Amino acid sequence: MNNVEKLYNNLESIENLPAFPQIALEVTYLLRKESTSAKNLYDLIQKDPVLVSQILKTANSPFYGLHEKVSSLVHAINLLGFVQIENIVIASALLSTMKKFPVGRRFNTNQFLDHSFGCGITAKIISNILNFNTGGLEFSAGVIHDIGKVILDLYDQEDFDKILNFAYKNNKSFYESEKVLFGITHCDLAKKLLKKWSLPEDLIDAVVNHHSPKKAKNQIMASIISVADLLTYSEGIGFGGNYSKFLMEDQEGWKIITSNIEVSKKIDLALFTFKLFEQIDEAKKSYFKELH
Fold this sequence. Notes:
Blueprint: H1 3-10, H2 22-30, H3 38-45, H4 49-59, H5 73-80, H6 82-98, H7 109-130, H8 138-144, H9 147-155, H10 157-170, H11 174-181, H12 186-196, H13 201-208, H14 219-234, H15 252-258, H16 269-288
């Protein structure tokens, strides 16, 4: 048994593995109940002033492009809706959790977050343009899609380096390289971690299968994350350990997306690129300021 397999098998017993913020878990649980009202959500979130502040700051940023100032939590909930509030809560929780991880010697946290949030933003752009009915958690899934790499870097840095070196020397993706070298991937590690954190199953499904969308219960959702990941990589937003060359038209996620849209709806990569760079700058103002 190699060290990556040992890490996978023992992940749940790691003592210094940070827990996901309780308030975020309570929000996601509450929003899975059909009977939940705006007042229920308000009563829960208002107990955490820091989270309220983050929601208001994000709601008032150009990232959401609202035409009126959001002045209160009630206003934010009514204007943004449950799904976007959940997106903000999960993204904010990820940032606060990342701060609790010990700093790896080799993994660049800032570059990782640039890539992660770039993927989330791109996923949101794709979903908005194509108007797929996926539940609206593309942003959160994109943000958290590579969390398994952080676990690998923190608890098995030697093998993390081996994967990066193999990817670089062989023009492979991080995912392809870890499959060849160890069999266990960052997606497998992410599945265990996100289940330990009790995050929503639809979110876990997209994260775990973003390299293999055909295996996902929601293939469209996983494909959006897959394509967003590739677009973010190709545009040089952050770094996720990918050194492979690819044609988008050959990618599984792209094929699933394009087979599920009308011929008249063309995907304009130039438009995606423009919106990506425009919105990544705004997202940095909202999310990255505390970390960079």
